[in-house]
Predict the structure of UMP kinase.
Amino acid sequence: MFKKSEPPIVISVGGSLIVPNGGVDTNFLSNLNKLIRNQVIKGRRFLLVAGGGNIARHYRDAGKQIIGDITDEDLDWLAIHTTRLNAHLLRTIFQDIANPRIVINYEKKIANWKEPVAIGAGWKPGWSTDYDAVILARDYKANVIINLSNVDRVYDRDPNKFKDARPIEKMTWDEMEKLVGNKWSPGLNMPFDPIATQLSKQYGLTVIIAPGHDFKNLENIIEGEPFKGTVIQPFKIDAGFYDHDYYLGKKGGHRFNRVESLGGKIFYNAMNFIRALIIKLSLNPKNCLEVGCGLGHLIRWLRFFGIDAHGIDFSAYAHKLAPPDIKPYMKVADVADIPYKDDSFDLVVSFNLLQHLERSKIKQAVQETVRVSRKYIFHKIITSDHNILYGLFHRRNFSDVSFFHTKYWLKLFSSFKTVTVKTASLLNPFDFVGSRFLLKKKQNDS
């Protein structure tokens, strides 16, 4: 029913969505049930972590009112047991498709997990279920944590107290740390647990804070469509590796500096020469566009082989570093809004670009590469099923925010009706890590 090779999606379900004001919200749970089951049919699997919410605070307040001082540990245990009650409710709803055991010990992975859904609850005092969701994302290599709550996104200060509170669409874990602090206390009401924030920063995770009652928005997040919410990532990066620090080797994953070191220059020059030669011999396009062209080295070699090559890159800094003779053929532009007319190029290529895009931007970016091509589109992508080989040549690369299995990309490319997906034969001794996809425009089929 589901693809075990693909990582699950972790969803942290706020307790205040399940039991908002002392009564169970059956409408919310019915909608969640419908959405999850629809996604399971599509082959996805989920780890749902139930929070405690307001009902947990009611129990804590009652204990304090009756006996006065209560230790933080006892207060946390009251909340933990509340999360377990909520988790059992979720487990009952998904009983036919969920693992029979609720995760309450995060030191052990689920034994022989075959079902498309598993449910988690609170674990130990000292943090919230946000922390537990982070542990699951780490252990099951999830690409993203979706944190559903009764707020639509993160604000720079409490919107219930300050009318001028500013919503934040993107932020780093450093910025989140400044917002939530670094200490946990029972009943703390923050967009994300401070202890979970520290752990997410350590593991370089991506977390999306989103409104819990907007199920169309949740579907958009899962399907890779534009959505409303706050994206929290290890560092600010837009449309890939387009900033000063990446090009100087501080944020990228390569084991040697590709701009300043002699080894880096030799390696990448040879790699782009081979790429250009194979493109010339296998496809021989009259003209070509490289999206995410970086410093333009592939453009230079393509032009050397007589191909009218051009490139776009989001980074003005990359354009600044590019060789003067290549700059006239480069534009600073977004891959999701390519500044060329339909059917402008025989071939459009990208190398190790798409895994750097936020999921909500990928489909539009691919559509743009299809639009401006009249014959072929080639995408080389670092994929999760090549993780072992990838690790031999790269350090951990936090800019791989869409580090997905090859099957994810095949499914995405196959969804475009104007192209056929062909097995890519553009082999390259420098490019054996990752997956290759060659798309051909249908109107040009003979």
Notes: Residues 238-259 have pLDDT under 50 and may be disordered.
